[in-house]
Design a protein that fits this description.
- The protein contains 5 helices and no strands.
- The chain is mainly α.
- It has 2 domains: 1-51; 54-92, no CATH class.
Protein backbone atom coordinates (compact mmCIF):
# COMPACT_ATOMS: atom_id res chain seq x y z
CA UNK A 1 0.00 0.00 0.00
CA UNK A 2 2.78 2.41 0.85
CA UNK A 3 4.45 1.71 -2.51
CA UNK A 4 1.25 2.55 -4.37
CA UNK A 5 0.89 5.73 -2.31
CA UNK A 6 4.42 6.83 -3.20
CA UNK A 7 4.02 5.83 -6.85
CA UNK A 8 0.78 7.76 -7.29
CA UNK A 9 2.43 10.96 -6.14
CA UNK A 10 5.11 10.94 -8.83
CA UNK A 11 3.05 13.19 -11.07
CA UNK A 12 3.30 16.01 -8.52
CA UNK A 13 7.07 16.37 -8.92
CA UNK A 14 6.61 19.97 -10.06
CA UNK A 15 5.01 20.72 -6.72
CA UNK A 16 7.31 18.70 -4.48
CA UNK A 17 10.67 20.02 -5.72
CA UNK A 18 9.95 23.70 -4.94
CA UNK A 19 8.19 22.79 -1.70
CA UNK A 20 10.95 20.58 -0.32
CA UNK A 21 13.75 22.83 -1.56
CA UNK A 22 12.44 25.60 0.69
CA UNK A 23 12.44 23.38 3.80
CA UNK A 24 15.25 22.59 6.19
CA UNK A 25 16.48 19.04 6.74
CA UNK A 26 14.61 18.80 10.05
CA UNK A 27 11.38 20.01 8.48
CA UNK A 28 11.71 17.46 5.67
CA UNK A 29 12.22 14.64 8.18
CA UNK A 30 9.15 15.82 10.12
CA UNK A 31 7.05 15.96 6.93
CA UNK A 32 8.13 12.43 5.95
CA UNK A 33 7.41 11.04 9.43
CA UNK A 34 3.96 12.66 9.52
CA UNK A 35 3.20 11.40 6.00
CA UNK A 36 4.19 7.83 6.87
CA UNK A 37 2.17 7.93 10.10
CA UNK A 38 -0.91 9.14 8.26
CA UNK A 39 -0.50 6.47 5.56
CA UNK A 40 -0.28 3.85 8.32
CA UNK A 41 -3.39 5.34 9.97
CA UNK A 42 -5.36 5.19 6.70
CA UNK A 43 -4.26 1.58 6.15
CA UNK A 44 -5.33 0.68 9.69
CA UNK A 45 -8.71 2.39 9.28
CA UNK A 46 -9.18 0.60 5.94
CA UNK A 47 -8.35 -2.74 7.55
CA UNK A 48 -10.89 -2.10 10.32
CA UNK A 49 -13.45 -1.02 7.76
CA UNK A 50 -13.21 -4.19 5.66
CA UNK A 51 -13.20 -6.45 8.71
CA UNK A 52 -16.62 -5.21 9.80
CA UNK A 53 -18.93 -8.21 9.20
CA UNK A 54 -21.59 -6.33 7.26
CA UNK A 55 -19.10 -4.48 5.06
CA UNK A 56 -16.88 -7.54 4.56
CA UNK A 57 -19.84 -9.61 3.36
CA UNK A 58 -20.89 -6.88 0.93
CA UNK A 59 -17.36 -6.43 -0.39
CA UNK A 60 -16.92 -10.16 -0.81
CA UNK A 61 -20.19 -10.48 -2.71
CA UNK A 62 -20.23 -7.27 -4.75
CA UNK A 63 -16.76 -5.70 -4.48
CA UNK A 64 -15.63 -6.87 -7.91
CA UNK A 65 -18.74 -5.26 -9.42
CA UNK A 66 -18.79 -2.01 -7.43
CA UNK A 67 -15.04 -1.22 -7.45
CA UNK A 68 -14.77 -0.36 -11.18
CA UNK A 69 -17.76 1.97 -10.98
CA UNK A 70 -16.36 3.72 -7.91
CA UNK A 71 -12.92 4.18 -9.48
CA UNK A 72 -14.28 5.33 -12.84
CA UNK A 73 -16.66 7.75 -11.11
CA UNK A 74 -13.81 9.11 -9.02
CA UNK A 75 -11.69 9.58 -12.13
CA UNK A 76 -14.49 11.40 -13.96
CA UNK A 77 -15.09 13.60 -10.91
CA UNK A 78 -11.39 14.55 -10.77
CA UNK A 79 -11.33 15.31 -14.50
CA UNK A 80 -14.46 17.50 -14.24
CA UNK A 81 -13.32 19.35 -11.11
CA UNK A 82 -9.94 20.18 -12.65
CA UNK A 83 -11.44 21.39 -15.92
CA UNK A 84 -9.66 18.72 -17.95
CA UNK A 85 -12.58 18.22 -20.31
CA UNK A 86 -12.50 21.93 -21.15
CA UNK A 87 -8.82 21.66 -22.01
CA UNK A 88 -9.31 18.57 -24.15
CA UNK A 89 -12.51 19.38 -26.03
CA UNK A 90 -12.53 23.17 -26.16
CA UNK A 91 -8.83 23.94 -26.59
CA UNK A 92 -8.27 26.38 -29.46
Amino acid sequence: MATVTFANRGNHIGLYIPYFSSKSFGEIIMIIVIFLCLVALWCYIGALFVRHPFIAKGLESYGHIVAPFVLISLGIYILVENGTFNLIFFFN
